[in-house]
Amino acid sequence: MLSVTPIPALSDNYIWLMRQDTTPEVCVVDPGDAEPIIRILEQEGLTLSTILVTHHHPDHIGGLPKLIERYSPQVIGPDNPDIDGLTERVGEGDTCRVMGRRFDVHEVPGHTLDHIAFFTAGIPPLLFCGDTLFSAGCGRLFEGTPEQMHRSLQLLSGLPDDTLIFAGHEYTLANLRFAQAADPHNRDVTDAIVEAQRARDLDRPTLPSHLAREKRINPFLRCGEPDVRATAAQHGNTDTDQATFATLRAWKDSF
């Protein structure tokens, strides 16, 4: 059975570790720092066979050189020549097999232009989405446009509702505070704040989330909801869902 556990790294990153009960070989996603990965591998007698990379930011690839030198894993990531060490470059429509599961690759530009996500169907479906979709939020637009990010989020929101969302950062509480401002009558957001605060008080991650839950609490997936659009209209154009998204994202940048 495939299990996924978080490895906290840097200030608020999660490196996701996938493993099967039947083998010591494991896969990690977005290794921004090698040391916590090496520590777990050595403590538990595991071998790093595969690395998945969603985009080129240093806090997602900073550990690659040391891990490649030490373990010589397969390294799968976006077709970006600035990422050294990739053994397989993938894009929209490609697939790869990791830990006995088939993963579909989706291009999800917005946060960066090279950003991809890895999705595997199953029970439950799993999505490793880096900095595109967060719980109650989405990534800042460093390279892409609001139109690109909105399309990317629409693509991800079309995945099965029971998909588990494995995002790259522990941003949930901050995102929920913005969600409460953007969607002030949403009781699901209020309940989510209580749940997230309880988890953080116990030093537990708020991730993974479920896609169905994100559709209830994430304002960036709710641009067509009248309450979200009405609140966003106080900050900019809301003539379309795409315009509402752009207004929300600009508002969040200064929130």
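Second entry:
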Amino acid sequence: MTATGPTRPPHIAAGTQAAPQLAALAQDDLVNRIAQVLTEAIMKGGFAPGARLTEATIARDLGVSRAPVREAARLLENRGLVVAVPRRGFFVRSFDAADLDQIYDLRMCLERHAGGLLAGRLTPEMDAALSAQVDLLHRLAEAGDADRQIEEDLKFHRMICVFAGNRRLLKVFDELTAETRYGIAMIGRLYDDPHEIARTHEPLLEALRSGDATSFAEASDYHIGTARERVVAMFGPG
């Protein structure tokens, strides 16, 4: 009896291999790229709060079909930037003071915990990365690049969550990031002196260097709490 190898599926010719679902991966990448384009447009005021995201128009402008635009809108819904209205489509979310107060309240809890996990475990490499990020915030202040400074500000906080090593905590932080950016973008800026943004991060780094979780909790509560008060006051009553 002659031994035989695995049977080849009839639709795959000899000498060829089945593609490893490259089409699906390419589609996912397209959806993420469209979501990024729409996010930036929302952050920069291209779509005002309450504006409808018209799939056909967006698809035409981007030179894509409507399906990935719809999937990208769903991603933005998950990130808290748009809301879906049955039989009407997707609309840019409108924020009020109560929304932002809740976002900052949750951020305060998350980042206090992240710092507590990291306290006493800060390596020289982590310290250098966080210090470099504060320096970058100062350079962006000098350059007057407010939009980039907002992004790099949040990146500093994300680095703490990454270094803390809790992937689920990081996932929740990432979900809040788009909402935080949007809220600040709607206001314009929190401080008249952009260098103040950089300076407010220095006590956080010093607290981490001390290795004292309580010191970090106090510094973080003050840092995020101050931003929370400013944001809520600028939005007015909820």
